[in-house]
Amino acid sequence: MIRKFVIASDKFKGSLTSAEVAAALGRGIRRVAPEAQVVELAVADGGEGTADTLVHALHGEWVDCRVHDPLGREITARYGVVDLPEGRTALIDMASASGLPLLKAEERDVLHTTTRGTGDMMLDAWRRGCRRMLVGIGGSATCDGGTGMLSALGYRFLDAEGRELPEGGEALSRLARIDASGVDEGLRHVAVTVICDVTNPLCGPDGSAAVFGPQKGAGPEDVKVLDAALRRYADVAATVAGRDVADEPGAGAAGGLGAAFLAFFPDSELRPGVDAVLDITGFDREVSDADLVITGEGRIDGQTLFGKLPLGVCRRAARAGVPTVVVAGMVEDAVALIEGGFAGVFPIQSRPCTLQEAMDPANASANLEGLGASIANFHNVIIRRQ
Predict the structure, then answer these.
(1) Which end is more exposed in the chain, N or C (fewer Cβ atoms within 10 Å of the end residue's Cβ)?
(2) Superfamily covering domain 50-273
(3) What pTM was estimated for this model as a whole?
């Protein structure tokens, strides 16, 4: 019997991409079981690097464009374009234009940072014929309710005297009217799939400012200012969109960018990152006749059971009755992970080493290859005994 292994691992951050992890495990499996069918899927969870993963997996192309960074400075960012059965689709990581890593620690200014660069990418993709977009919204530096993104697409945010507001979340406390007259109607109806693993509402104690603002440099007073400003924004936006999205799950994602998509793009949907990516990469089709699924991430522990990519892979495989094992550079709470549904938990380190040694790409790749061989051999023993 020819066995089938499906590999669908997250990246090992700072060390190997998802595709590189899968390739190393695949080499190890083939070394022990050359007759086996090995399917290597590059996957991601919607955070930084999702576009990279999907462009690789779907054989897309990269497009460079000029955008504004979170502080309004011009930079070059890139997004992917791929032709899917549903149409020409842009693959966008908002973090590449509006992400926290673009700023030095001393530059973090969540009262004034903007998502305009994300809108710049979307507009560029629209002009290139993309009528569908997949946008990963993890890793933002912003809390502007997505108004920067909307401004790039033609919306105008005005105060009571009709003056255009400066960008950033703080200014939204003075918002009186949203002018949509300059927005292309076709652009409003782009089909946007927003990859979002955050279910927070826009405002309140569980809202964007309160929960995520401090990570972006907001102090206690800043949080109060931003939360009130986002509430004002939600009230005004509801009069334009005809829909109050403030309390909808995911509205608070990426500093309220989720709310902008929900309110102003009627054909948008917010989806958990893992599920969206697994759908696009054809995971269910590949796993339907598989014998074993291998997933992983750089570190696994009890938090993995709260929605991280390996758990999403495990649950999807379980629907098809296929067991999943998980590999990682560092393992904690292995018992909890087994109780949570994984058939096996495997650290990749073969000997004690420093963190630097463990994260060295060559070492990590070699360790994964050896682990792939061990997993295939162990699986072979189990099959023989059945």
Answers:
(1) C
(2) Glycerate kinase, domain 2 (3.90.1510.10)
(3) 0.83
